[in-house]
Design brief:
Chains A, B: InterPro entries: HTH_LacI (IPR000843), Lambda_DNA-bd_dom_sf (IPR010982), Peripla_BP_I (IPR028082), SBP_2_dom (IPR025997). The structure is a homodimer of 343-residue chains. With 343 residues, the first copy, chain A, is an alpha/beta fold. The first copy, chain A, folds into three domains: 4-46; 55-164 and 301-330, Rossmann fold, CATH 3.40.50.2300; 167-299 and 336-340, Response regulator (Rossmann fold, 3-Layer(aba) Sandwich), CATH 3.40.50.2300. Chain A has helices at residues 4-11, 15-22, 30-42, 49-56, 73-89, 106-116, 131-142, 167-181, 198-211, 229-242, 257-266, 282-290, 301-316; strands at residues 62-67, 95-100, 122-125, 146-150, 161-165, 186-192, 217-224, 248-252, 274-278, 295-298, 326-329, 332-334. In chain A, the strands form two sheets. The first copy, chain A, has a six-stranded parallel sheet with strand order 2-1-3-4-5-11, sandwiched between helices. The radius of gyration of chain A is 24 Å and the shape is elongated. Chain A binds a DNA duplex (16 and 16 nucleotides) through helix 2 and helix 4.
Chain lengths: 343, 343
DNA sequence: TTGAAAGCGATACCAC
DNA sequence: GTGGTATCGCTTTCAA
């Protein structure tokens, strides 16, 4: 591995000069600069992360985590993984500020993002899919802040990258799986968090597309539960009573799955409804073990948090740009048998 | 974060002394030693990996990779991931020696392991489940070599840890899934690599256990294909011809899946046999897209390689013991829709 | 038994 | 514009 020192010797300059060139800090004569760049290129120079980390720890860069996810069980795992990663990066000077709020409120999110200007070097954001939010994101990126969207993406923004799943594919996988395990007539009731969350809308399209050629399948009703268990219980109860012929529940919600299951139990329909959901909250695992839920689509919550934090770390501390814009985790199918994941 | 320097100041000794205590290098008076250990404990000292890596890179530790997997497609991904990880660790001085051979031959594996004594500091091994191998492993660990089993474990050995899946669970998941997608009579033909590979035997038990309460299910025949596509084709063809009532193929093999599928096609049975397999080789993906294979159990080959290498790195370079003995990756269910994984 | 010092790679800052 | 130097945390070596 080539080091700055070696390059400096080869070029007959000091390490400081090489550093200035490699980090675009200016103040170097054009000819020297070009020589250094050429040599670095030829020798295939890559900075040693350990050296860099050691030197960088006085910089104390700050990352803000902005998630309107308070009270939604799925995100506990995401946040936990971020906390763990943050802890292991703390010795490199990386600092974290948390902005965890409750409810999908565009104004609140915009206000939170406004606060960050000048205070942080990076943001990890679960965005609400609204023009006003994407405008705010543009403000941030334009002033040099590194922005990652997590778990959900946003249209027409200038975020640097996205970490999460492909929601359309998630819906499609669920729809296709449903048809593998239930070969008969499918009268489907759907509950989802909010169509304002991009992912939920995409899930719905994916699910529809998987069913589109099945004449035995029809969607009877769709309800928005705001990812709130109480509301979900009420809305699903209402839906089940209004449509007693429903024999499938597709719960594409992040925070309303337990509520939907309780509604099914209230109606005494746990034996004859096929239920497919997302994620593996403790309550979901319980319902799977009971046989109420047949399958769930797992979205790697912990890896989402871990990867997002790692990308920020690599960028802020090691100066490494993310390898790809879309960091897509696979939609995994979990049934009773393989739900208890170890790693 | 506490540093050695701070501990040294607090204890009124030099950094060298603290280092000697913390790394059990002796030559420190008992009372000083105890004081230092106490202070380090109290202040919750953790060595800074960057500092350590920087200082340790002249040590050039060597890890050997021993896998009897040449020609088995599944392991390409495992090895690729190891190569990638090795490359990123090379700047910390970690060196790799590869011993990739063909065929499950106990003598060959023992000979390979014997060669390593005194030459390497760690071994990543896909073991053949035989007493002679576990004896060799004991020799290695007794002389201070760090041994990890990958992809398959071995009984009664003294390996430090295992990275791979829970095969019993994999078989059970497959068996359970089979009953979810096929509700009728199940006349099952099984092909697997070798009962000498612990994992394959465990898969079979898991699969059996999932079916044990289903009166409609029976195993018609089991064949060992030595993870060889040619052999698998022949054996499966023979099996299908001998048992024309087989309507399910459970391919628990690592390297005989394509062969089994070709046998099914040769018999013209691709429409009426339910096929469940393991892993996602390119040929497997093709067969899934064609509809010949209904589902596969994915075993995270890349993560297996990456994690094994990371554990070795942490141990050899950072001096960190592995967090757990069993590093179990989840058995994931993949169908046509979610087979193309991005990350 | 112990301390002091050099060195690993990168960076920041102060002199010139 | 530039070079020199201190620094980060840890290990190793040499001298006392």
């Amino acid at each position: 591995m080539v080091t700055i020192k070696e390059i400096a010797e080869l070029c007959g300059v000091s390490r400081g000069t090489v550093d200035r060139v490699l980090n675009h800090r200016g103040n170097v004569k054009a000819e020297k600069k070009e020589l250094i760049l050429k040599v670095a290129q030829e020798m295939n120079y890559t900075p040693n992360p350990a050296g860099r980390a050691l030197a960088a720890q006085k910089m104390k860069p700050v990352v803000a985590i902005v998630m309107p996810s308070k009270g939604i069980g799925f995100f506990d795992a995401v946040i936990e993984a971020m906390e763990k990663a943050a802890k292991s990066y703390s010795m490199y000077g990386l600092q974290v500020e948390w902005y965890i709020s409750k409810g999908y409120d565009v104004e609140v999110q915009c206000k939170q993002l406004s606060q960050l200007l000048g205070k942080v070097q990076a943001v990890i954001l679960m965005p609400i899919n609204d023009e006003r939010v994407s405008t705010k994101i543009r403000h941030l990126t334009e002033s040099g802040i590194f922005v990652i969207t997590i778990n959900n993406d946003i249209e027409n923004s200038s975020r640097h990258c996205y970490v999460g799943t492909d929601y359309f594919n998630g819906g499609m996988t669920a729809g296709s799986l449903l048809q593998m395990i239930n070969h008969g007539m499918l009268n489907i009731g759907i509950t989802l968090g909010s169509l304002q969350i991009l992912g939920h809308a995409q899930r719905l399209s994916g699910f529809r597309s998987a069913l589109s050629h099945n004449p035995l399948a029809q969607i009877m009703a769709i309800t928005e539960d705001q990812d709130d268990e109480m509301l979900s219980y009420e809305k699903n109860l209402e839906m089940l009573r209004k449509h007693p012929d429903i024999n499938v529940i597709f719960a594409a919600s992040s925070g309303g799955i337990c509520g939907a299951c309780r509604a099914i139990m209230t109606c005494g329909r746990e034996k004859d409804i096929t239920v497919i959901v997302f994620d593996t909250l403790p309550t979901t695992v319980e319902m799977m073990e009971k046989g109420l839920i047949q399958a769930t689509i797992y979205q790697h919550p912990r890896r989402q948090g871990q990867i997002a934090m790692q990308i920020v770390f690599e960028y802020l501390v090691n100066g490494k740009k993310p390898e790809r814009e879309l960091n897509l985790l696979t939609n995994e199918i979990r049934i009773k048998e393989n739900i208890n994941t170890a790693l």
